[in-house]
């Protein structure tokens, strides 16, 4: 019986978005991305390889995982088995401390935690760079969840040189996010299919790659300056430029819903009143507000007429992977 290892990884929200793969099998992106890891939302995953098992046993929050999830996770475990020369099945228990359907990517924290617990349980001692490369094979956004604070996923061109690096691991200035959970319906278009369609058909896609790459050094400079307004402006631009590529895809599609625009309007109005707040959104309708903790009460009050307290989740910058 192998050792049982538990790892914790936190989810992250991209400020400069990842959108599109130059290599879908290895998950090598067309553009670098830059994110903030969140404190409140994380995944705890326990992995044990065992001679007693005749198949991988995978559970989520205490229940057996569905076939699609189990298959994806088993394929990911195959990468670890191959690297460790370990021909054993694994028992995997995952507890997601990401509120149900919060519109926060649980694949980011999920695959980062699975990479960390799985590799260690298999006897591999990976450094953070190799852990980031491994997590990348599960889900692109997981590449960044190895580190805390602000993190850059350097796109690279192949399996060896596409990984995340810390930009600012300890965030000692006032920046946080309010996640506005607009609805918990299943996404109409999964991000994986959405980005593939965009890469293949949007005439704006080459411009997306160029502008996203140019935004990375600008965002890093804004983080070094601890300039919330510059960080927010650049993040907002990146999000809307990404969403413009979906509108220009053939056939066109969008993740916007009416409530998305309602939330954006509240943020814009607050900003006109002098509040430093900016919006971003991912492959779903939910809006995340980038702001200071100081102004958060005022922003929550402005959102209150439209959204219930349960729909408004506040998160500060969080840490990288740890072992329990
Ligand atoms: C991001 N998103 O940078 C971007 C912005 C959504 C929009 O990464 O196919 O689950 O597993 O690599 O990482 C969500 O997509 O996609 C995502 P795969 P992933 O956070």
TrEMBL record:
Q: Name one GO cellular component term.
A: cytosol
| Domain of life, source organism | Bacteria
| Annotated keywords | ATP-binding, Lipid biosynthesis, Lipid metabolism, Lyase, Nucleotide-binding
Q: Which GO terms describe its biological process?
A: isopentenyl diphosphate biosynthetic process, mevalonate pathway
Q: Does the keyword Amino-acid biosynthesis apply?
A: no
Q: Does the keyword tRNA processing apply?
A: no
Question: Where does the sequence pass through the membrane?
Answer: none
Domain Mvd1 C-terminal residues, every copy: 178-311
A Pfam family of this chain: MVD-like_N
Q: Per its record, what are the GO molecular function terms?
A: ATP binding; diphosphomevalonate decarboxylase activity
List, for all copies, the residue spans of the domain called Diphosphomevalonate decarboxylase-like N-terminal.
9-164
Q: What EC number(s) does the entry state?
A: 4.1.1.33
* Family under the similarity heading: Belongs to the diphosphomevalonate decarboxylase family.
Q: What is this protein called?
A: diphosphomevalonate decarboxylase
Question: What organism does this protein naturally occur in?
Answer: Latilactobacillus curvatus JCM 1096 = DSM 20019
Q: What is the lineage of its organism?
A: Bacteria, Bacillati, Bacillota, Bacilli, Lactobacillales
């Amino acid at each position: 019986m192998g050792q049982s290892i538990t790892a914790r990884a936190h989810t992250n929200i991209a400020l400069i978005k990842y959108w599109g793969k130059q290599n879908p099998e290895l998950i090598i992106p067309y553009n670098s991305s830059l994110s903030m890891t969140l404190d409140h939302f994380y995944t705890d995953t326990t992995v044990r390889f065992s001679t007693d098992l005749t198949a991988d046993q995978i559970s989520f929050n205490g229940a057996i995982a569905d076939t699609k999830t189990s298959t994806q996770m088993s394929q990911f475990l195959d990468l670890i088995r191959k690297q460790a020369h370990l021909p054993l099945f694994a028992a995997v228990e995952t507890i997601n401390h990401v509120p149900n359907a919060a519109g926060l990517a649980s694949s980011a924290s999920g695959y980062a935690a699975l990479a960390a617990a799985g590799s260690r349980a298999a006897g591999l001692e990976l450094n953070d760079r190799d852990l980031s490369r491994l997590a990348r094979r599960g889900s692109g956004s997981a590449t960044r969840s190895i580190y805390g604070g602000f993190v850059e996923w350097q796109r690279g061109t192949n399996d060896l040189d596409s990984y995340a690096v810390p930009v600012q691991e300890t965030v000692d200035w006032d920046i946080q996010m309010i996640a506005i959970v607009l609805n918990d319906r299943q996404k109409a278009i999964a991000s994986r299919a959405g980005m593939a369609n965009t890469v293949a058909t949007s005439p704006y896609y080459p411009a997306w790659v160029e502008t996203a790459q140019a935004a990375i050094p600008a965002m890093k400079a804004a983080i070094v300056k601890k300039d919330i307004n510059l960080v927010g402006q650049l993040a907002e631009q990146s999000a809307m430029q990404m969403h413009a590529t979906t509108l220009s895809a053939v056939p066109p599609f969008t993740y916007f819903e009416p409530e998305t625009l309602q939330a954006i309007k509240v943020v814009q109005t607050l900003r006109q009143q002098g509040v430093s707040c900016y919006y971003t959104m991912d492959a779903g309708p939910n809006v995340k507000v980038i702001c200071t903790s100081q102004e958060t009460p005022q922003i929550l009050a402005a959102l209150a007429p439209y959204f219930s307290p349960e729909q408004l989740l506040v998160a500060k910058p969080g840490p990288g992977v740890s072992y329990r």
